[in-house]
Amino acid sequence: MTHYVVPAPVQPAVPVEGSSSLFPVRRILCVGRNYAAHRVEMGGDDREPPFFFSKPADAIVTPGHSVPYPTATTNLHHEIELVLAIGADGADVPVSEALDLVWGYAVGVDLTRRDLQNALKDKGYPWEAAKGFDNAAPISAIRPADRVGDPQGRIFLSVNGQIRQDGKLADMIWNTAEIIAQASRLWRLEAGDLIYTGTPEGVGPLVRGDKVAGGIEGVGEIAFAIT
Ligand code: MN
Fold this sequence. Notes:
- The chain has a single domain, classed as Alpha-Beta Complex (Fumarylacetoacetate hydrolase, domain 2), CATH 3.90.850.10.
- The protein has a six-stranded mixed beta sheet with strand order 4-3-14-7-8-11, covered by helices on one side. A four-stranded antiparallel beta sheet has the order 13-12-16-17, with no helix packed on it. A three-stranded antiparallel beta sheet has the order 9-6-15.
- The chain is globular and about 45 Å long.
- The protein has helices spanning 36-41, 95-98, 114-123, 128-131, 176-186; strands at 13-15, 22-24, 27-32, 51-55, 60-61, 76-78, 80-86, 102-109, 112-113, 137-138, 143-144, 154-159, 162-168, 193-196, 204-206, 211-216, 220-225.
- The chain is α+β, with helices and mostly antiparallel strands.
- It binds manganese (II) ion (MN).
- Manganese (II) ion binds at residues 30, 79, 81, 110, 198-199.
C-alpha cells in the first residue's frame, strides 16, 4: 500500500441528481466572455475569440453548502454558467463528435474577485487570484446527458429574490460542442473534467447574507448563501 508523507487530498466530487453516486472532479476549465452582451459589459472587443482559464478542482461548493465571503476582495461577483461534466477522454476532438464526451450537465456560478481581476488585467498578470480561490465554483447536482439533450434554454440568477442575470444558452458565442472541441486542442480532456461555459450579462456584486439562486431550463437549479 502506498505511503504518503502527508495526508492525501480528498477527491472533490459532485452529486449526481437522483442518485447516491458522485462525479469525481479532475479539474475545472472556464470559458471567458462567451456571451456578446457580457463581453461588452466587461469592456471587451466583439471580435476577440473566447479563451480559457482554470480553477482548482477543490474550489467546488456542492449543494447544501454556503460560500464564506472570500478574503482579499470587496467586490465579489456572481457569474451564472452552464457546466459540462466530461465523462470520456479526448484530444483534438472534432465538433461533430464533441458532445459524445459529455456525461452530464450542471448549473454553476463562476465566483470572481472582480477588483482583483481588474488589477491583474491592468498589469497583464494571470487571473488565478481572481478566479481560482477557495469556494469559487459553486455547482448544482449533475444531471446525466441522456436526460438533458443539448440544452439551449433560459439561464438566470437572482440575489435575494431579485433577478440579476437572465439570458439564453442559445446566445453563447461558442456552443458547447465548439467549446469542447477547442478545449481538446489545448488539453487532453479526461473523465472528471468540468467546463464552465461563460456567463450572460448582468454580473454584479454579492455581500455577506445574500441568498443566491439560479437555474438553467432543462438542467437544474442552484442555491447558496454568502456567509
Ligand atoms: Mn465566467
